[in-house]
Design goal:
Bound molecules: NADP nicotinamide-adenine-dinucleotide phosphate
Oligomer: single chain
Number of domains: 2
Strand order of the largest sheet: 9-6-10-13-12-11
Structural class: alpha/beta
Order of helices and strands: EHEHHEHEHHEHEHHEEEEHHEHEEH
């Protein structure tokens, strides 16, 4: 099967760079078009990108000339890592023009016709696309906020086995979560920032949509989440201290077993970016740690540890995920792979290329 041609919007940013890295030698996708702001348009990617991963930008991407947002990319799939200030209208325009758009940005996550998907949790929400496609065949699928993804993947095994009614979460979020130029060294050194604009609202609303049901409309789950978000002096990896109230009584062994035995459905586990374990449980009391554990499952595994009784709710534990991989670029890629596996994104070769 020929590879599907992909455009990455926001390719020079923190998430865009991860997408470029993950798409290099991808078995199903080839990187065809890179889009960024006027600052970069018309220049070779390798010349303009402030590459923050080890080594150099992939050779295939380095030679591509960056395109402007308004130019039709003529690809099979658009993956957006655009700044949220421009993502909303740009992604809607691509969808109207007939493109499948997989987005990292928050702009359309809570739209009533846009699925907000973590494949291991709510792949069936993609059924909503039958109704949501524009007349041109385009649509938008989003992945959740970088902290929401870690939280919901850790909640899912408990949700399925016991039910969850209340969640209290305090995050310690990495610097790269704020984008390439988001936090200066002067602000974050010797410091913790106790406010990340918009973040607590996302963490309190998105899990309800993801854990809810699609029945012709998205019906939110009956779950109350209270979030407190902090930026800390860690490069990559969001840590979360979580307490939960369960709907049925459980022992510590049952909670541990639910987390340890959680697996993706076989059709999800078979996707190229799926990790061997979506959730990995640690038993040492000093794990997970961002520096040691953010790379688990090539950045796609969520690490959970310190499972213990909570004197206020029922159980508490620590969650860690790599914000740029499982929390953003890898999450989008897994959604894109799922769309291909379900036949919801296809090659346009021979069907009259878009653009
Ligand atoms: N960082 C994370 O951990 C994370 C996690 C989950 C979701 N997200 C979301 O993912 C998106 C990207 O985040 P980021 O952290 O990668 O941000 P970033 O580092 O600031 O990158 C933003 C990207 O958008 C491009 N851009 C800005 N204005 C543009 C315009 N008018 N036209 C075309 N391109 C434009 C920038 O291009 P130039 O370089 O040319 O300016 C850059 O490539 C955001 O919506 C964010 O909320 C981020």
């Amino acid at each position: 099967m020929p590879k599907l041609r992909v455009a990455v919007l926001g390719a020079t940013g923190a998430v865009g760079q991860e997408l470029v890295r993950l798409l290099d030698d991808h078995p199903w996708f080839s990187l065809a078009v890179l889009v960024a702001s006027d600052r970069s348009v018309g220049r070779r990617y390798g010349d303009v990108v402030d590459w923050r991963s080890p080594g150099f930008p992939p050779r295939g991407a380095s030679g591509l000339v960056i395109q402007a947002l308004g130019r039709p990319p003529g690809v099979d799939l658009v993956i957006s890592a655009l700044d949220s200030a421009v993502a909303g209208s740009a992604e809607a325009e691509f969808a109207r023009a007939g493109y499948p758009v997989v987005s990292n940005s928050s702009s359309h996550r809570m739209d009533p016709d846009v699925p907000l998907v973590i494949p291991e949790v709510n792949a069936s929400h993609l059924d909503a696309l039958q109704a949501a496609r524009s007349s041109s065949g385009g649509f938008i699928v989003t992945n959740p906020n970088c902290s929401t993804i870690g939280l919901v993947l850790a909640l899912k095994p408990l949700w399925d086995r016991f039910g969850v009614s209340q969640v209290q979460v305090a995050t310690m979020q990495a610097i790269s979560g704020a984008g390439l130029d988001g936090v200066s060294a002067g602000m974050i050194s010797d410091n913790v920032l106790p406010h990340i604009p918009g973040e607590e609202e996302k963490l309190e609303t998105e899990p309800r949509k993801i854990l809810g049901r699609w029945e012709g409309a998205f019906l939110p789950a009956g779950l109350a989440v209270s979030a407190a978000c902090h930026r800390v002096a860690v490069l990559h990896g969001h840590l979360e201290a979580v307490s939960v109230k369960l709907k049925s009584v459980a022992t510590v062994d049952e909670v541990v077993d639910a987390l340890e035995s959680f697996r993706a459905a076989p059709e999800i586990a078979a996707l190229p970016s799926s990790p061997p374990l979506p959730v990995q449980l640690h038993h040492r009391p000093d794990r997970p740690q961002p520096r040691l554990d953010r790379g688990a499952g090539r950045g796609m595994t969520v690490s959970v540890g310190r499972v213990r009784e909570c004197p206020v709710l029922d159980w508490k534990f620590t969650v860690l995920n790599h914000n740029l991989v499982r929390g953003a670029a890898g999450a989008a890629l897994l959604n894109a792979e799922l769309l291909v596996a379900r036949g919801q994104v296809k090659s346009t070769l021979g069907a009259g290329a878009r653009g």
